[in-house]
Design a protein that fits this description.
Helices cover about 20% and strands about 30% of the residues. The chain contains 15 helices and 52 strands. It is of the alpha+beta class. The chain has an eight-stranded mixed beta sheet, with helices on one face. It has a five-stranded antiparallel beta sheet with strand order 38-39-40-42-41, with helices on both faces. A four-stranded antiparallel beta sheet has the order 1-10-11-12, with no helix packed on it. It folds into five domains: about 25-150, Bulb-type lectin domain (Agglutinin, subunit A, Orthogonal Prism), CATH 2.90.10.10; about 170-295, no CATH class; about 305-440, no CATH class; about 475-605, 2-Layer Sandwich (Phosphorylase Kinase, domain 1); about 615-840, Transferase(Phosphotransferase), domain 1. Its EC number is 2.7.11.1. It is found in: Cell membrane. It is a single-pass type I membrane protein. Keywords: ATP-binding, Cell membrane, Disulfide bond, EGF-like domain, Glycoprotein, Kinase, Lectin, Membrane, Nucleotide-binding, Phosphoprotein, Receptor, Self-incompatibility, Serine/threonine-protein kinase, Signal, Transferase, Transmembrane, Transmembrane helix. It is an enzyme of class 2 (transferase).
């Protein structure tokens, strides 16, 4: 009897184990076949276990849906829903391969409530959830042919790896439909997709009414989202496929800066689109972009022919008519109802006659989100975009948009927004009387010739007399005074540089009282600029050692006639350095301008610049780790002062080893502020068409798009850290498989071989550990995306606190000196690898 009971127990145990194995097998399936069904409670797992498919109920609902979500992320984040219009009321549903080869959702009575609804050629189909989150149906014997995939049938979420079709012949692609509410996955009232007509842009519709648009795509960003550069550039972010498919279709895709990041774009039930990234440390979704998030981002907020400006209050003129236009309904406008927009004050003449007494003209609006419904037109070599617009009587505006080409607007100008930073110009067509009219051609010709001759004469007189006199009045004093006693000697005088305020941003600083030296005293101090006193040669000119009255040694920077630093940049450096006081910034002692001479007088740095030690085999041995550590810390504190602690917020823009000077105690001092820019404290970024700096040190967004911020300096500082720790130049890896020191550092770090980057002269264990931490910080500073780089306050904390946790850096993909090749100074436009920059200056 006991033996019989033992056998029964064994059989029961084996049966239970078999059932458990079957359940576990189903719940961890990697594909669906005709013989393997996903039932409610089971799930399908993607390769890499990033995504999971199964049955779920939304918040506050008992209805059951089949969906895909991120595995191991709470709360559950749904990215796709199958039966969103036909939910199940119980837990008896299943997802399976039907007899006709389709993937179907069935209820407890085996009735189909959802199907892929395709016509497979073969019947041995399988469904697989890919690591991208794409659910694919194909033949088990021919997996190259996809019969159906969820990425081509999305709900409310766009994931990296998706391809969104763009084809004007097929019309608007309204691919994404949000949930009806937070707890109801059925289709909501909004749609999001691509408008392929004219210049491509993303649009959110409510029915047939536009609620928001991104602005045209310029091959790098959507121009109506100028801050998009923070999370994208030419290397990663949105891309448009090439060449087109046989039917003429191209596809938008998204390339993340780090393939390990979990990213998603979602249109919410309230018509708001978000870009979100999973923060592994905080265990939550971080919002990178939200649109529309401001009043002016709402579609055509101010009506036709009007501009919305979010920097103003509605009560004080957030909406304003374009110049030459007036409110169409004045009473409503005054009451704050701007929907009626504006109308022309004077009708267009639309004359094409060269000898007409009046011809329409144009007035430029700057920093704009270009109007909707623009057309991209081709122009030949004999005409301009302006000519095309003037030739068309229905043309209301034109602009040559970088990355797009000639655009004209023949419909009403709608959805215009003014940006504080970024944006494009728009040339608005106006009647001649609105802009002063246009005279007959012979009068114009006579006026031009007369004005040219008069201007030439004035220029000659000004150059010969006024310029020399004014410069002397601004900078120099005929009475030379002493360096140590102004009243007794005649080397220099103190004079306020009040007229230099014009080169500053408004009136952010007071004009300094800066000593001005006579040219004779400077020439005497440097031995007539002798070779013996020459300290160095650069793109700006030459630096000499000078000994002035009282034996005071100073450094004399004499700018050459061919210097890249013009008079404005020269004045800029004078005002910036004179107002900054920090032990890690070089001190400006005076200046001199006489005739064509531009000279700056600095405190003398007996150990010259950092690059002289760092990249010289014989001198680098003297840079033991403690000195390198102090140099890194000193530069960091100097930058933090510039960005945060000084009364000016200053972006240096040309931080590199040769601009770090070393005093007699090897303490670092940041120098060369000729390219620096002043920000107000509410300003985060700016842009320029004149990109200046040094290849290998320039941040991606600055080198490629002219956008700069304090994070641009952080990037340069990161390069400096890696150079100081390794003793190697960033550009020395050019042509190698790593392409840069940054790439080499990443390669070693990702393989756990970071020590190999450290200069072999650094041997102490404590020193090596500090050096490894510096390398880690350097890689964080040189990440491609602005949003991922720390600010200088965080950098200094990372360096000084050995206990603080350092986040994982992202793999670098950008190398400024490779992407742009050799760009010769003086060229107006340089184009390399289909990237065009205007007035690029390499130093």
């Amino acid at each position: 009897m006991a033996e019989s009971n033992r056998d029964l127990t064994l059989v029961t145990t084996l049966f239970i184990l078999l059932q458990l194995c079957r359940i576990v097998s189903c719940s961890t399936s990697t594909l669906i076949t005709k013989n393997l069904t996903i039932r409610d409670g089971d799930s399908l797992i993607s390769e890499g276990e990033i995504f999971e498919l199964g049955f779920f109920s939304p918040k506050n609902s008992t209805l059951r849906y089949v969906g895909i979500w991120f595995k191991n992320i709470e709360p559950r984040t749904i990215v796709w829903v199958a039966n969103r219009e036909t939910p199940l009321s119980d837990h008896n549903g299943a997802l399976k391969i039907a007899d006709d080869g389709n993937l179907v959702v069935v209820n407890g009575q085996n009735n189909t409530v959802w199907s892929t609804n395709v016509h497979p050629k073969l019947n041995n189909n399988v469904a697989v959830l890919l690591e991208t989150g794409d659910l694919v149906l194909y033949s088990d014997s021919d997996r190259d042919t996809k019969y159906w995939e969820s990425f081509n049938n999305p709900t409310d979420t766009f994931l990296p790896g998706m391809r969104v079709r763009v084809n004007p012949s097929m019309g608007e692609n309204r691919a994404f439909i949000p949930w009806k509410s937070e707890s109801d996955p059925s289709p909501g009232r909004y749609l999001m997709g691509i408008d392929p007509f004219g210049a491509i842009e993303i649009v959110i519709w409510e029915g047939e009414t536009r609620k928001w648009r991104s602005g045209p795509w310029n091959s790098a960003i959507f121009t109506g989202v100028p801050d998009m550069f923070r999370v994208t550039n030419y290397i990663h972010g949105f891309k448009l496929s090439s060449p087109p498919d046989p039917d003429g279709s191209v596809f938008f895709t998204y390339v993340p800066s780090n393939k390990d990041d979990l990213l998603r774009f979602r249109i919410r039930f309230d018509g708001i689109v978000e870009q979100l990234m999973w923060n592994r440390d905080a265990r939550n979704w971080t919002s990178l972009q939200v649109k529309p998030s401001k009043e002016c981002e709402k579609y055509n907020r101010c009506g036709n022919y009007s501009v919305c400006n979010d920097s103003k209050d509605f009560d004080s003129g957030k909406c304003s008519c374009i110049f030459g236009f007036e409110p169409a309904y004045r009473n409503q406008w005054n009451k704050g109802n701007f929907s009626g927009g504006c109308k022309r004050r004077v009708s267009l003449n639309c004359s094409q006659s060269l000898f007409a007494k009046k011809e329409d003209g144009f007035r430029v609006l700057k920093g704009m989100k270009v109007p909707d419904f623009g057309s991209v037109v081709s122009i030949n070599n004999s005409e301009t975009c302006k000519d095309v617009c003037l030739r068309d009587c229905s043309c209301n505006a034109y602009e040559v948009v970088p990355g797009i080409g000639c655009m004209i607007w023949t419909r009403d100008l709608v959805d215009m927004e003014h940006f504080e930073y970024g944006g494009n110009n728009v040339n608005i067509r106006l009647a001649a009387s609105e802009i002063g009219g246009k005279k007959e051609i012979w009068i114009i010709s006579f006026s031009i010739v007369g004005a040219f001759m008069l201007g030439l004469c004035c220029l000659c007189i000004w150059v010969l007399w006024k310029f020399r006199k004014n410069v002397k009045d601004i900078f120099c004093n005929k009475e030379d005074n002493a360096l140590l006693d102004i009243r007794k000697n005649r080397d220099y005088s103190v004079k306020s540089l009040s007229s230099l305020n014009e080169v500053l941003v408004e009136d952010q600083v007071d004009t300094p009282d800066l000593p001005t030296f006579s040219f004779n005293s400077v020439a005497s101090a440097t031995g007539d600029f002798s070779e013996e006193n020459k300290l160095g040669q650069g793109g700006f000119g030459t630096v000499y050692k000078g000994q002035f009255s009282g034996g005071r040694e100073m450094a004399v920077k004499r700018l050459s006639g061919k210097s890249k630093q013009g008079l404005e940049e020269f004045k800029n450096e004078i005002l910036l350095i004179a107002k900054l006081q920090h032990r890690n910034l070089v001190r400006l002692l005076g200046c001199c301008i006489e005739n064509d001479e531009k000279i700056l007088i600095y405190e003398y740095m007996p150990n010259n610049s950092l690059d002289r030690f760092l990249f010289d085999e014989s001198k680098r041995m003297s840079l033991e780790w403690r000195k390198r550590w102090d140099i890194i810390g000193g530069i960091a504190r100097g930058l933090l002062y510039l960005h945060r602690d000084s009364r000016l917020k200053i972006i240096h823009r040309d931080l590199k080893a040769s601009n770090i000077l070393l005093d007699k105690e090897m303490k670092p001092k940041i120098s060369d502020f000729g390219m620096a820019r002043i920000f107000n404290y509410r300003q985060d970024q700016a842009n320029t068409i004149r990109v200046v700096g040094t290849y290998g040190y320039m941040a991606p967004e600055y080198a490629m798009e002219g956008m700069f911020s304090e994070k641009s300096d952080v990037y340069s500082f990161g390069v400096l850290i890696l150079e100081i720790v390794s003793g190697s130049k960033n550009v020395s890896f050019r042509g190698s498989e790593h392409r840069s020191l940054i790439g080499y550092a990443w390669s070693l770090w990702s393989q756990g071989k970071t020590k190999e980057l450290i200069d072999p002269t650094i041997k102490e264990v404590r020193d090596v550990n500090e050096a490894i931490r510096c390398i880690h910080v350097g890689m964080l500073c040189t990440q491609d995306s602005v949003i991922h780089r720390p600010n200088m306050g965080s950098v200094l904390l990372m360096l000084e606190s050995q206990t603080s946790h350092l986040p994982r850096p992202r793999q670098p993909t950008f190398h400024s000196f490779l992407n742009f090749g050799e760009i010769v100074e003086g060229k107006e436009v340089a184009t390399v690898n289909d990237i065009t920059l205007t007035t690029v200056v390499g130093r």
